[in-house]
Amino acid sequence: MIVSLEGKIVFRTDRFLIIEVGGVGYKVFANAETLRKVHQKEDLVKIFTNLYLREDAIELYGFWTLAELDFFETLNRVSGVGPRTALGILGMGPIDMLKKAIAAGQTSYLTKVSGIGRKTAEKIIIELREKMGEGKGVESSEEFRAEEDALEALRSLGYSLNQVRQALSEVPPEIKGAQDRIKAALKILGRQNG
Predict the structure, then answer these.
(1) pLDDT tens for residues 29-79?
(2) pLDDT the model gives residue 133
(3) Contact indicator for 150, 181 with CB cutoff of 8 Å
(4) What does the alpha-carbon distance between residue 124 and residue 102 come to, in Å, rounded to a whole number?
(5) Does the pTM of the predicted model rise above 0.85?
């Protein structure tokens, strides 16, 4: 099992990286967060990986953090959710927000991912809700709504979805409520653009 790679990036697209390790190039499919953190070719990086085997292919999926890898593997264990779908879910936003969406039973959030219909979203929620909610159903639901409201408000100000997700992921978790999260995210966005 290949659990991590450390090497030089020789090629990068919006879906995958090719990382050269000891003269061998590995094609690694990656989520948007990982791809965002890898800026240029020639960078030396360490990526945590999941090796996926099926009859007609061997694929590597890469992640910047162990938390992303763990969440990917958790999603991948749900029947009907393959690695590409799990990667698409991870691309929806920060892990904490995804966990809140699942704990709050927000099927509409998950159906925004290409390839996930209502039934698959419900299946993910049924199988993972307890793990994600950790007994905080109402609190998670309120936190998720605040996060969604903040996301929509910032998008209405003209920021891209990726910019908004990144800024909200940098807002400390102890800052609660949509208004406070918006203010904190605007400060982060102002520093990035200033």
Answers:
(1) 998 778 877 766 667 889 999 999 988 889 999 998 999 999 999 999 998
(2) 58
(3) yes
(4) 8
(5) no
